[in-house]
Amino acid sequence: MIPFTKAHACGNDFLIISEEDAADYDKADLARRLCERNTGIGADGIEFFQSTGEATGRITLYNADGSIAEISGNGTRCVAAWMAEELNSQIGDELAVETDAGVRVCTIRDFRDSDSGGPTVLVTTDMDVPEFEERTVELADGTEIEGVYVDMGNPHFVILLSGTDEETRDFAIGDRTWDEIGEEICFHPDFPEQTNVEFVRILARSSGSLNQVGLRIFERGVGPTTSSGTGTSATATAMIGVYGAQSPIEVAAPGGIQTVEWAGPGEKLFLTGPATLIAKGEAW
C-alpha cells in the first residue's frame, strides 16, 4: 500500500507521495494509474517528495499522463501546505522546496478553513526570475497567433485575446475553441518539448491601470485545467512585461484568483495563492 495526501490549489490537484514509499514502483505508471479520474484517485499529477532537512524538501513532478514536468507552481504550493501541516509551521515561516527548475522558497502567509472543511494555507512563492520574448506561431490552417513565450522554469505561450465584455469571454479564436487551439500549440513543432498555453482576457482596470485578467489554461501533460501557478506567473509576466500592466496583478482562472507581484525584467516574481489539503489515504 502507498500512503498519499491529496491537495489542490485553485482546483489544480495533486497527490503527494514520499520517494521512499514509491521506491519499488515505476513512477510514470503509478502517475497514470493513480491520477486517472474514473478508476484511480484522480489528480493532475503526483509530487514525489523527499525530505532534505527540517524545513526543506526535494520534489519530482509526474503529470497525469506519466510525463515529467520541471515544476508546477500550484504543485509546489500544495507541497508547502502539506509541509506546513506536518511541521506545525507558523505564519511567516519559510519552506524551501527544490524542484527540477530550482529551489522555490515558500512563505506561509495565513491558515484558513476551506469551504470543503480541509485546512487551507495561503502561500507566497518566490518563482525566480522569468524570461520572456514575443513570438508568432503559425497554425496548420495558416492562422498566425501572436503571443509571448515565457520561461518560468517550464515553457509557456501566453495569448492575449481582444475584447473584455461578457460576449467575448468565451476565449474562442474565430470559430475554434481555446482548448482546440491550445492543444495544437502545445504540440506545435516550434516547441520541441511541448508547451503550456494560456489564453488571457482583460477583466478590470483601476485608475487607468490593468489590474485583473481572466485565464484559460491548456497544460502540457494534462490538457485543460482549472488553474496553474506557473501559468498564472507566465501570464502576469506577459501582461506586465509586454502589455503595460502594473504590479500587483490578479489572475482569475476557473479555479480561483491568484496574485502576482513583479517589479519587471531581471527581478524575481512572487506568486500568492491558497492550497488546501483534501484527504489522506492509501492506494494499491
Task: Walk me through this protein's architecture.
The protein is α+β, with helices and mostly antiparallel strands and 284 residues long. It has four helices and 17 strands.
Global outline: globular
In which order are the strands of the major sheet placed? Answer: 1-2-3-4-6-7-8-17
What proportion of the residues is helical, as a percent range? 10-25%
Rg, alpha carbons: 18 Å
What's the level 1 CATH class of the largest domain? Alpha Beta
- Could you give the distance between the termini? 5 Å
Name the beta content range. Answer: over 45%
CATH superfamily of the largest domain: Diaminopimelate Epimerase, Chain A, domain 1
Secondary-structure element sequence?
EEHEEEHEEEEEEHEEEHEEE
**In CATH terms, what is the architecture of the largest domain?**
Roll
Largest sheet: 8 strands, mixed, barrel
Number of DSSP helical runs: 4
Provide the structure class. Answer: alpha+beta
Q: Spans of 5+ residues with little confidence (pLDDT < 50)?
A: none
Descriptive terms for the model:
globular, alpha+beta, Diaminopimelate Epimerase, Chain A, domain 1, eight-stranded mixed barrel, 284 residues
How would you summarize what this structure contains?
The protein is of the alpha+beta class and 284 residues long.
Layout of strands and helices, then pairs:
Layout: E1 2-9, E2 12-18, H1 27-35, E3 45-53, E4 56-63, E5 68-69, H2 73-87, E6 94-99, E7 102-113, E8 119-126, E9 131-138, E10 144-151, E11 155-160, H3 178-186, E12 196-206, E13 209-219, E14 223-225, H4 229-241, E15 249-253, E16 256-262, E17 269-283
Parallel strand pairs: 2-3, 4-6, 11-12, 13-15
Antiparallel strand pairs: 1-2, 1-17, 3-4, 4-5, 6-7, 7-8, 8-17, 9-10, 10-11, 12-13, 13-14, 15-16, 16-17
Helix pairs in contact: 2-4
